[in-house]
Write a structure and sequence with these properties.
The protein is mainly α. The chain has helices spanning 3-21, 40-60, 73-78, 80-95, 101-109, 112-120, 128-143, 155-172, 179-199, 205-225, 237-254, 261-269, 272-277, 286-298, 313-330, 337-373, 385-403, 409-429.
Length: 432
């Protein structure tokens, strides 16, 4: 768009340059190429053809999923009219017997804003195949009931297929979608559809029983071959145990004589949740687990109280909460290596913090005893009112840091250093 206006500018600039230098031909060995300006009639023909093409595009575009279809019905009504109005107005300008090149260029510029809005409302890639796949998948999903009888599907299959359809639908509505992305979305939905169809319970009982036995046996072999632990590729011990327990129960059920259609389906349904949780760790969680084990071992030794070696309630609560948070991170099998290391660092900091709070608490007790035993006055063994006031404030500030459950290790160590300095200053101020 605006190509006529751009050509017009080029002509004007070229003429100005040639005029300003006083010549229209070059005598150098390598002469410059002089662009021959278009005539008014050439501009009119070019602009007329362009406007006719754009008007046909706006008039014939429809709502759909093909290239240059409107994305929504709303788009077709909100962007079409303004663009057509701009085109018709430009056609009137070009058709005027007294039109100039400058007017044609100005008319071309008026198409920019409504034109951009118009083309932004059109699809840039053909997504009809994806739409057809979504329609077919939705119809199949709606026609297949969730249940435990022949011709029905278990809840996990229904949920998985519904999710796949939703994802494909979301992809279909993405504006900047390439042909490759559409192709991949179709393939993904096709794969999900095949899995869903294979999950439909056979109407033939013997076929269903045979298929169920094979599935339970395969899952049992998978879990028994897995490793319980916190290393990369290991399975969280609890989820592994839970899934294996359910599998063994299902195995007993499907191998019982006289089992019914409903009983088989119930046994398979019971496997859904523990199977979803049975996932391997994507990173090594052993260092984090070791730190948690150490923290849990030490936690009972941190006694709440006001004596030396004890901690305040806020510090104990903060440390216990840190352990809980770290265990949540440890048990998240999808946690990356970086996030796992960060969780371990936080657990370590929490351990350092509560230990520092004990050191700070003991120091506060010693400083309080020193202040209490040192009278105010000017005699030997006494301190001034000012020294007593400064030392008392230092003790109060340190106590605030110790008692705050949100205090960090850095704040604890800083408070320890500050109180030690205040203690030394106070001791030195005692009159000798």
């Amino acid at each position: 768009m605006n190509k006529i206006y751009n050509n017009y500018q080029l002509v004007v600039i070229t003429v100005l340059m040639l005029t300003s230098f006083g010549f229209v031909a070059c005598t150098m060995d390598d002469p410059l190429t002089v662009v021959k300006p278009k005539t008014l009639e050439e501009y009119k023909v070019q602009m007329t053809a362009y406007l006719a093409k754009e008007k046909m595009m706006a008039d014939t575009a429809k709502v759909g999923f093909n290239v240059n279809n409107y994305k929504t019905t709303t788009d077709s009504t909100t962007v079409k009219a303004p663009y057509l109005a701009a085109i018709v107005a430009a056609q009137a300008v070009v058709a005027s017997p007294t039109v100039t090149i400058a007017q044609i260029a100005a008319a071309d510029k008026t198409l920019a804003t409504p034109g951009k809005a118009f083309y932004a409302a059109l699809w840039i890639a053909d997504r009809r195949q994806l739409n057809d796949s979504i329609v077919a998948a939705t119809a199949l999903n709606n026609a297949t009931l969730e249940g435990t009888l022949g011709g029905q599907v278990l809840p996990d299959a229904k949920v998985a297929f519904t999710s796949a359809i939703s994802k494909a639908t979301s992809t279909r509505g993405t504006s900047a979608l390439s042909a490759l992305q559409i192709k991949l979305a179709v393939e993904t939905l096709t794969t999900a559809k095949k899995s869903f169809v294979s999950a439909i319970i056979p109407l033939d009982f013997n076929a269903f029983l045979s298929k169920s036995k094979a599935y339970v046996t395969a899952q049992k072999a998978l879990v028994e071959a897995s490793v319980a632990g916190f290393n990369k590729g290991d399975y969280m011990p609890l989820t592994r145990t839970n899934y294996l327990t359910v599998i063994l129960a299902a195995n007993d059920s499907v191998n019982k004589a006289g089992i019914s259609h409903v009983s088989i389906s119930k046994a398979l349904t019971n496997m859904i949740a523990p199977k979803a949780a049975f996932l391997p760790f994507v990173a090594d969680h052993r260092p984090l687990n070791d730190t948690i084990v150490l923290a849990e071992t030490l936690n009972p030794t941190f006694i709440v109280g006001t004596a030396k070696g004890q901690v305040v309630t806020a510090a104990k609560t903060a440390f216990t909460t840190a352990i809980t948070t770290a265990k949540t991170a440890r048990d998240n099998v999808a946690l990356t290596e970086g996030a796992t290391l960060a969780a371990r660092f936080k657990m370590g900091q929490a351990l350092f913090t509560i230990q520092a709070s004990i050191v700070l608490g003991d120091l506060i007790i010693d400083c309080t005893a020193l202040k209490t035993s040192t009278p105010i006055g000017t005699a030997v063994g006494q301190v001034s009112t000012a020294s007593n006031f400064v030392f008392n404030k230092a003790i109060t500030d340190a106590t605030t840091v110790r008692n705050a459950g949100a205090s960090t290790y850095a704040q604890m160590t800083s408070a320890i250093a500050a109180l030690n300095t205040a203690k030394t200053t106070f001791t030195n101020s005692i009159k000798k």
